[in-house]
TrEMBL record:
Transmembrane segments: 345-364, 495-517
Gene responsible for this protein: yidC
The protein's name: Membrane protein insertase YidC
Family, as annotated: Belongs to the OXA1/ALB3/YidC family. Type 1 subfamily.
Residue ranges constituting the Membrane insertase YidC/Oxa/ALB C-terminal domain according to the UniProt record: 345-531
Protein role: Required for the insertion and/or proper folding and/or complex formation of integral membrane proteins into the membrane. Involved in integration of membrane proteins that insert both dependently and independently of the Sec translocase complex, as well as at least some lipoproteins. Aids folding of multispanning membrane proteins.
Location in the cell: Cell inner membrane; Cell membrane
Molecular functions per Gene Ontology: membrane insertase activity
Pfam families reported for this sequence: 60KD_IMP, YidC_periplas
């Protein structure tokens, strides 16, 4: 009986944890209240060159004005268009990733048409939007890069007494853009100023996507911090100052990051007109006649650890699985290892599930064996309850003596299960946030039909077949599990498959496949052990 209560507690803990994730996704970690970091409110109206504001939104026509020339950059990984009027980024399309799973779907554009109004990659100097207030020229031509080649475009402008040169270097083998900026104060009366590198993008995920929110992230001495509440970002925004390694707009799958080369920088983030914007601002001395040099890198690409590990500034820290990070990351590595041989992430998930089950086989075997032994003792426990029901202390003493006599551990059936909970949630986090699973197919069409089925393991099963079958396997497991003596507990345990099925209806198909396969393996293991015990 005690064993059943613990098992019930474990099962209910699963429901609570999964239900909490389903109903209340984890809120991002907030920055620590240290002197170097502060979150400040921003005025809703922006007028003039205020230090903590982006300049007023400008129209698309201002950005793609007639005096701007569109320069194209082609690499095996992406294609981009840079406008010579200030060096603005008009689009940045990832060739490996498409918007949908539909045939001929367009490549993912890391900018988006609506974001042009917010001037991606625009420089802000002393609050001045340099792309609108100045005369710009350029040096270089369209770039077509492959292998390990690099290419450079140079943009020069005169903006209200400042002479600015932007040197952008592109790499064929990664998503990094390096920028070298030189600013010469020719005639502006300002001796002290601020220069901000910026970028902007459309939302990288659906606004109501609780599993994959678009957020503002930054990384500094206090580690990774994130904010994904759109209302707060629209009304208040974020502003943090200190030794910031980077600031970014990201989702589970994609990231746009600014990596300033400075140990004293202010990262700002805001949502305006449903467009996410960030800036990395530095305070600079602009004495007349003295040229100042500043550097910043941009990363516009997938949340791929293989690629991001090669980027300086600990950008790979943006891939974070929360409490279970230490478990989730090795599991993603294992998943990739299997996939390099089978080239199907659905099969890779099955193989990983089998590997995990083998790893925990001794613990599971001990758990099932203990449960069977407890089942055999239930009639004796019932007699003890009849005899000592009014004497709790004596009942517990006699019950423990009974377990000792038959060498049975009352908690032996659930402790192995408890040890497996972190692994499950680690894999849960890994499957939710692995870009490799985005649009990864398993069984594209329902067998013997042309109906799209498991064509995207990062999305829910459109036919709800796998969660329903998963629920059925859970029900079968419950029927095979030694029943608790308390009828109320029995009803609760039998109700759990329905709860899990409901929660799993909208879970990513990859996670449901894992749970389903794990259930099938557990049923087989339980059947084998039951036969041996009998």
């Amino acid at each position: 009986m005690e064993n059943k209560r613990v098992i019930l507690a474990v099962a209910l803990s699963f429901v609570v944890l999964l239900g909490w994730q389903f109903l209340f996704p984890p809120q991002p970690q907030q920055p620590a209240p240290v002197e170097q970091q502060q979150v400040v409110k921003q005025n809703e109206a922006v007028k003039g060159p205020v230090s903590n504001q982006f300049p007023d939104p400008i129209t698309t026509s201002s950005i793609v004005s007639a005096k701007g020339t569109k320069l194209k950059v082609e690499t095996p990984l992406y294609s981009a268009v840079i406008n010579s009027q200030g060096g603005l980024l008009e689009n940045f399309k990832l060739k490996i990733y498409q918007e949908t799973i539909e045939p001929n779907s367009p490549d993912v554009d890391m900018v988006g048409t609506d974001a042009l109004n917010k001037a991606p990659m625009g420089l802000i100097l002393n609050g001045i939007p340099t792309w609108t207030r100045g005369v710009w020229g350029y040096e270089g031509n369209d770039l077509s890069l492959d292998g390990d080649k690099i290419g450079t475009l140079i943009f020069r402008g005169d903006v209200e007494g400042f002479r600015i040169e932007r040197r952008l270097t592109f790499h064929a083998d990664n998503y990094l853009i390096d920028e070298d900026v030189r600013v010469l104060n020719v005639s502006n009366p300002s001796g002290q100023g601020r220069l901000a590198f910026t970028t902007a993008t459309k939302s990288l995920s659906a606004e109501d996507d609780r599993y994959n929110p678009t957020r503002i992230s930054w990384f500094g001495p206090e580690g990774l911090n994130q904010e994904d509440d759109r209302e707060d970002l629209a009304k208040t925004g974020v502003e943090v100052t200190g030794d910031m390694s980077w600031g970014a707009i990201d989702s589970n799958f994609f990231i746009l990051a600014l990596l300033p080369d400075s140990n004293d920088v202010t990262i700002k983030g805001k949502v305006q007109d449903n467009i996410f914007r960030i800036a990395a601002e530095q305070t600079v001395s602009f004495d007349k006649g003295i040229e100042r040099k500043l550097n910043c890198s941009y990363f516009f690409g997938p949340m791929d650890p293989t690629v991001m590990n090669k980027v300086p500034g600990d950008l790979s820290a943006a891939i974070d699985f929360g409490w279970f990070d230490i478990i989730a990351k090795p599991l993603t590595i294992a998943l990739e290892w299997f996939n390099q041989y089978v080239h199907n992430y659905g099969i890779s998930i099955i193989l990983l599930t089998i590997a995990i089950k083998i790893l925990f086989w001794p613990l599971s075997q001990k758990s099932y064996k203990s449960m069977e032994q407890m089942k055999r003792l239930q009639p004796m426990v019932a007699k003890l309850r009849e005899k000592y029901g009014d004497d709790k202390e004596r009942l517990n003493k006699e019950s423990m003596q009974l377990y000792k006599t038959y060498n049975v551990n009352p908690a032996g059936g659930c402790l192995p299960m408890v040890l497996q909970i972190p692994v499950f949630f680690g894999l849960y986090k890994a499957l939710l946030g692995t870009v490799a699973l985005r649009h990864a197919d398993f069984i594209t069409y329902l067998p013997f039909t042309d109906i799209i089925w498991l064509a995207d393991l990062s999305a829910k099963d459109p036919l709800y077949i796998t969660p329903i079958v998963m629920g059925a396997t859970m029900f079968l497991q419950q029927k095979m599990t030694p029943s608790a003596g308390d009828p109320t507990q029995q009803k609760i345990m039998m109700f759990l498959p329905l709860v899990f099925t409901f929660m799993f209806l909208n879970f990513p198909a990859g996670l449901v496949v894992y749970w389903l396969v794990n259930n099938v393996l557990s049923i087989a293991q339980q059947w084998i052990i039951t036969r041996k015990v009998k």
